[in-house]
UniProtKB/TrEMBL annotation:
The keyword Methyltransferase applies. The keyword RNA-binding applies. Residues 46-157 form the THUMP domain. This is Class I SAM-dependent RNA methyltransferase. It comes from Aureibaculum marinum. One of its GO terms (molecular function) is rRNA (guanine-N2-)-methyltransferase activity. InterPro entries: DNA_methylase_N6_adenine_CS, RlmKL-like_Mtase, RlmKL-like_Mtase_CS, RlmL_1st, SAM-dependent_MTases_sf, THUMP_dom. Keywords: Methyltransferase, RNA-binding, Transferase. CDD domains: THUMP_AdoMetMT. Gene3D superfamilies: 3.30.2130.30, Vaccinia Virus protein VP39.
Length: 387
């Protein structure tokens, strides 16, 4: 029988509450929200499920030891007290990722090196050999987190970051991160009962994440590998059981999911990625200039898009964003329109519509706002135009 243990799911800034809700819906216990992370309790099967199903998690860590450290010698000595042969064979590879926020540990890279030395020396003393380092594709990814004097040693069950879903083979300029895309879709309140439009869809990431949400398809069902598959205690039968259980909960949404982009190359890339994700029957993409479109579908509709910021394309930003506002007013009454941008001065101020929500998020290191415009039918829409 599997025992329960504590885990930590890392996420992007602003998505902590959404991730906590995802975890509760999956059946996690003792869910607690932190900063860019959520801790929870579950068993090995739940760890497999969390990696497969969570949309807004970047990685799932399993803490194995916690202790107090005052300096590098403390760290080295305490790392050596861990029975590393329970986690890795001398013929396997490992890598160490460290985050240090403490007066006595100001260099995270040095913390990584000190941890690596301690593990290597542990094996040399015990078996006369050492495991090798592989920074790109290690058999075991180790995470060290030092906050003041508290050190947590974890093993990373995800391996590669969970934003690497496995469906994206083709990208455009500055493609949006898949976890960010999924989080933004969930922030709009989209659940598959509404129609969904991405009017500047690029390589299709937002559309794909929306379609997986609409049809309750596990976020990482297309991934080739997770970190835990290389662990000595990996249970392939349990993993298959969890995977099949999640696939039985897939449903079929009848709402339309539509993407536009004016660049033919973007449409080709989006079609490739949609096909890789096995979602061709659920998503329609068209080569269209959004500024020349209007709403073609009846019923509740959510629009979400990631328009170019000044960093991404050479455009006249004020004119471009003004045209976004004009197109929404003219062509998309009766919709809730959301967009993310880092351009507050030249961009958002020129949309010409009043926002009903503004949420702080980050796209990489860029501070952004996810904003909502409620486009009312008929005369009400005038209410949301700036005076």
């Amino acid at each position: 029988m599997n025992e329960n243990f504590k885990m930590l799911a890392k996420t992007l800034f602003g998505f902590e509450e959404i991730l906590a809700k995802e975890l509760r819906n999956l059946g996690a216990m003792n869910v607690k929200v932190g900063v860019r992370n959520v801790t929870f309790v579950g068993d090995t099967g739940f760890m497999y499920k969390a990696n497969l199903a969570l949309r807004t998690a970047v990685r799932i860590l399993k803490p194995i030891r916690q202790f107090k450290v005052s300096n590098e010698d403390d760290l080295y000595n305490l790392i050596q007290t861990i029975k590393w042969d329970n986690y890795i064979d001398v013929n396997q590879t490992f890598a160490v990722d460290a985050v240090a926020n403490a007066e006595n540990f100001t260099n995270s890279h040095y913390v990584s090196l000190k941890t690596k030395d301690a593990i290597v020396d542990y094996f040399r003393a015990k078996v006369g050999k050492r495991p090798n380092i592989d920074l790109n594709h290690p058999d075991l990814q180790i995470n060290i987190h030092i906050q003041h004097r508290d050190c947590t040693v974890s093993i990373d069950s995800s391996g590669d970051s969970l934003h690497k879903r496995g469906y994206r083979s083709a990208t455009n300029i500055a493609p949006i991160n898949e976890v960010l895309a999924a989080g933004l879709v969930l922030m709009t309140g989209y659940d598959g009962t509404q129609h969904f439009i991405d009017p500047m869809c690029g390589s299709g990431t937002i559309l794909i994440e929306a379609a997986m949400i609409a049809n309750n398809i596990p976020a990482n069902i297309n991934r080739r590998e997770f970190g835990f598959e290389k662990w000595s205690d990996f249970d392939p039968n349990l993993f298959d059981t969890i995977r099949n259980s999640l696939l039985k909960k897939v449903r079929e949404s009848s709402a339309k999911i539509i993407g536009y982009d004016k660049a033919p190359s973007a449409i080709y890339k989006a079609q490739d990625n949609i096909e890789n994700a096995n979602l061709t029957e659920f998503i329609t993409v068209k080569q269209e200039n959004f500024f020349r479109t209007e709403k073609e579908i009846e019923g509740k509709t959510i629009i979400l898009f990631n328009p170019p910021y000044g960093e991404r394309l050479e455009i006249d930003v004020p004119v471009f964003y003004k045209e976004i506002g004009n197109t929404l007013k003219r062509g998309y009454p009766g919709t809730n329109a959301w967009l993310i941008t880092s351009d507050f001065e030249n961009g958002l101020k020129n949309v010409g519509l009043r926002t009903s929500k503004r949420i702080k998020v980050f796209n990489g290191k860029l501070e952004c706002r996810l904003v909502k415009y409620e486009m009312y039918e008929g005369s009400k829409k005038g209410k949301y135009m700036k005076n």
